[in-house]
Fold each of these.
Amino acid sequence: VQLQASGGGLVQAGESLRLSCEASFNIFSSDKMGWYRQAPGKQRELVATITSPADTEYSDFVKGRFTISRDNAKNTVYLQMDSLKPEDTAVYYCNVHRLIISTFARDYWGQGTQVTVSS
C-alpha cells in the first residue's frame, strides 16, 4: 500500500509545475485526497484537498494559483501549480484520507516530492 508522488523540480518564480500522486490501491469516490507541504524548519501544512470536483478546499496562500483534481479510474490526484513563488518551496506530500467507520479514519501518505522555486 503506497502513494507515489512525482512532478517536483526546480523552477523560476512565475513558472508552473504539475504534481501527480498515484495510489497502489483502489481509491474510493468517498476518499478525501489532498496535498500538504513542509518547508525546512516549519510544520507540515495543508495545501488543498478534494473529495469531488464540487468539494475542494484550498489554503489561502494558494487560492487562485493552484488547482487540485483527481482521476478515480487512475487512482491519482493532481496538483497544478501556477504562478509559483519562492515561498512555495517545500516538500509536497500527497494524502488519502479514508473514513473506515463514523468514528475512525485512516490516512495514507506519499513519500514527498521536492519543489524548489528560485527568485
Amino acid sequence: QLQFVESGGVLVQPWGSLRLSCASSGIIFRIYAMGWYRQAPGKQRELVARVSYGGTTNYADSVKGRFTISRDNAKNTVYLQMNSLKPEDTAVYYCNTDPVYVTSSWGQGTQVTVSS
C-alpha cells in the first residue's frame, strides 16, 4: 500500500510563494515517478508537476515557469515550490505516483488558497 501525507498549504496573497511537502511511506520511494496533483472546486483532479525517479521534471502549461517540483529520496519526500501564485491556483493539492497505481491511496491533500 502506498500512502502519502501532504502539508504546507495556507492562505497566501496573489504573487506570493509557498512550498508544499509530501511524505510517503510503504514504498521503495526512489523507483517511482512522483506527481503533484490539484483539484479545484467543481473541477477534476489534474496533474500539475511530475518528477521521474531520475529527476527529470515536467509541468502543466498553467504552472510552467512558476512551480518547481523536486524530490529527496533519502527522506522519501517530494516538494512543490510555488511562486507567483494566482487565484486560479486555489485548490487542494495532492501527491501520488505517476501513473497512479491501484495500490496507491490518496492522502488528505493540503489546501492552497490564493486570495487578497
Amino acid sequence: QVQLIESGGGLVQAGGSPRLSCAASGRSWTIYTMGWFRQAPGKEREFVAAITWSKGEEYYADSVKGRFAISRDVPKNMVYLQMNSLKPEDTAVYFCNADHPYSGEDYWGQGTQVTVSS
C-alpha cells in the first residue's frame, strides 16, 4: 500500500523556518519525482518544489526560489521541504506528491497545514 505521510506543519511566525517531512512507503521510488504542492483557502493547488529521487535534481516555483529547499533521504524514504523566511502568503495546506514520469501514476499525502502569522 502506497502511503505519503506529511508532518511538520503548524503555526509559525513570519520569518520562521520550519521543515516539512514526507514519509514515503509502499514502493520503490527510484523513477519517481517527489514534490511538494500547496493549496491556500479559495485557491487552486499549486506547485512548490520537486526533486528527482534518483539524481536529486531540484525544481522550484518562482515564489519560493531562494527561500525553500527540497531534499530527500533515500535510505529513509523521506522527502523534506525546508522553508525559510516564511511570509503570510505562504499559508496553505502543503501536500507531498509522488509522480511517475512515464506511467502517470500519481500519489498524494493527506496534507499538513502551515499557517504563517504576521
